[in-house]
Amino acid sequence: MRKLETKTIVVASHNAGKIAEIADLIGPFGFSAKSAAELQFDVPDETGTTFEENAKIKALASATASGLPALSDDSGLVVDALDGAPGVYTADWAELPDGSRDFAMAMQKVETALADKGADKPDQRTARFVSVLCLAWPDGHTELFRGEVEGHVAWPPRGSSGFGYDPVFQPEGYDTTFGEMSAEQKHGWKPGDAQALSHRARAFKLFVETCLDA
């Protein structure tokens, strides 16, 4: 495993919500970071069929363009009753013809698909959020970190915090959705803590343990 020896990195994302979450996670470690969006990098085609493949594509694109280490995230909602959909196509389910994204529409698509399956009880609506972080260097070296959190799809959506599908994901052991949690509650982890709640925080915890001297 390669250690990250610089505090200057690129957050390889054009998703404002994701950029904000990663900024919250890396902030305590003193990183100086800009996003691919700020640097006006082109959005790479995510042609992978796994979270790992797409995370690599994004991180390597930003590392190559910037000459700096880059940290990406590929994440999604995996619903058991839908055979793992939307999965790596989680963002695509929100895509509109003009290229913008409507996650209220995407959440409704998930609910409609579950209703078509007759899945109306929590144990029929089990799901997990998956996050794969990729740290890439300009020389092509990459490190991957996967985090998952189990739960179920709730309906109707609840809460306005977070982003994406957060208002319909209720993690195991909680009576609130990610959309009803503060950033601190959702992440559930900071340096020195033993546990992490969100999928992204769990992946980030592995990144810290592997690549940082923290």
From TrEMBL:
CDD domains associated with the record: HAM1 (cd00515)
Annotated Gene3D superfamilies: 3.90.950.10
UniProt-listed Pfam families: Ham1p_like
Source superkingdom: Bacteria
Cofactor note (record): Binds 1 Mg(2+) ion per subunit.
Binding site for substrate: S13, H14, N15, A16, G17, K18, S75, F163, G164, Y165, D166, K186, H199, R200
PANTHER family per record: INOSINE TRIPHOSPHATE PYROPHOSPHATASE (PTHR11067:SF9), INOSINE TRIPHOSPHATE PYROPHOSPHATASE/HAM1 PROTEIN (PTHR11067)
Primary role: Pyrophosphatase that catalyzes the hydrolysis of nucleoside triphosphates to their monophosphate derivatives, with a high preference for the non-canonical purine nucleotides XTP (xanthosine triphosphate), dITP (deoxyinosine triphosphate) and ITP. Seems to function as a house-cleaning enzyme that removes non-canonical purine nucleotides from the nucleotide pool, thus preventing their incorporation into DNA/RNA and avoiding chromosomal lesions.
Protein name per the record: dITP/XTP pyrophosphatase
Species name: Rhizobium halophytocola
